[in-house]
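Hypothesis: this fold can be encoded by more than one sequence.
Test: take the structure tokens below, design a sequence, compare later.
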């Protein structure tokens, strides 16, 4: 599935942030979810890291809890 072709649902009282990193195909590298008003430095974000195959399809989604500001280091 390509996320850009799917419908993401709004979740009441939840903020969703996307980071595309170096991708230029409209697919996010990271997706973060937290309660509205949560600081990006707060460690309660649920962050998903997407891995893709050569065709641009998601192969693996790894999820961890941490800070949105530290998402890249979280999955390093």
């Amino acid at each position: 599935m390509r996320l850009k072709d799917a419908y993401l649902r709004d979740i009441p009282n939840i903020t969703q942030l996307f980071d595309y990193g170096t991708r230029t195909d409209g697919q996010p590298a990271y997706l973060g979810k937290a309660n509205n008003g949560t600081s990006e430095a707060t460690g309660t974000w649920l962050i998903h890291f997407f891995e893709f195959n050569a065709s641009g399809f998601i192969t693996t989604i790894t999820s961890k809890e941490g800070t949105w500001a530290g998402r890249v280091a979280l999955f390093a």
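The chain has one helix and four strands. The chain has one domain: 3-74.
Hypothesis status: open.
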